[in-house]
Amino acid sequence: MNKISIMIVGVGGQGTLLASRILGAAALKKGYDVKVSEVHGMSQRGGSVVTYVKLADKVYSPIVEKGEADIILAFEKLEALRWIDHLKKDGKLIVNDQRIDPMPVITGVAKYPENIIEKIKVNYPNTIAVDALQIAKSCGNLRTVNVVLIGVMAKSTDIEKEVWIETIKEVVPQKFVDVNIKAFEAGYNA
Is the dihedral of CA 17, 20, 26, 27 positive or negative? Predict the structure, then answer.
């Protein structure tokens, strides 16, 4: 099995933790040893949230150091920029093309950076920008952005599509399973 280091980064309330649970459970089904570490900033107030996930035959630490991530799954553009130095030069960034202003921008103390994705692509050409919010909306629930992004990322793993869907059925609350499977499929096919 390949060792895969993944970071899931976003803003509190975007569902990064559910995404990491889906990823971890699917990887366990595939036979990987999985370690997950969640770091909560001011997540309750829209602050940065990062989850480290490592998959391998044997994993000793979940922490992903700078330059070590094979994949960064970014739920927001500024979070992609904030954590990009953790991505390997040939790693893959999957970024939701969504802007969520942090408190310093809201209060006028700072400006939101322009052209984030274009600037990242200069040094990290393996960047995929996805309008996951629009895809989630078309699926019928804006809160499925996380699963749309998991769907996009799933194609970069050796975990079969059926395993992902089975995992969503087990991890997501029953009343939201159908819309989340629809969101996963839409991301997978994006």
Answer: negative
> What percentage of the chain exceeds 70 in pLDDT?
96
Angle at 7 between CA 106 and CA 50, to 5 degrees: 40
- Give the model's confidence band at 1: pLDDT under 50 very low, under 70 low, under 90 confident, else very high: low
Neighbouring C-alpha atoms within 13 Å toward the C-beta of 55? 22
Spatial distance between the Cα atoms of 176 and 130, rounded to a whole number of angstroms: 22
The residues, any chain, with a CB within 8 Å of residue 142's CB and separated by 6 or more, are 133, 136
Question: pLDDT by residue (tens digit) across 137-159?
Answer: 999 999 999 999 999 999 989 99
What is the SS3 string spanning the chain? Answer: CCCEEEEEEEECCCCHHHHHHHHHHHHHHCCCEEEEEEEECCHHHCCEEEEEEEEECCCCCCCCCCCCEEEEEECCHHHHHHHHHHEEEEEEEEEECCCCCCHHHHCCCCCCCCCHHHHHHHHCCCEEEECHHHHHHHHCCHHHHHHHHHHHHHCCCCCCHHHHHHHHHHHCCHHHHHHHHHHHHHHHCC
Domains of the chain and any CATH numbers: 4-188 (3.40.920.10)
Token match 């649970």: residue? 21
Please tell me the pTM assigned to this model: 0.93
Token couple for 143 = 């809160």
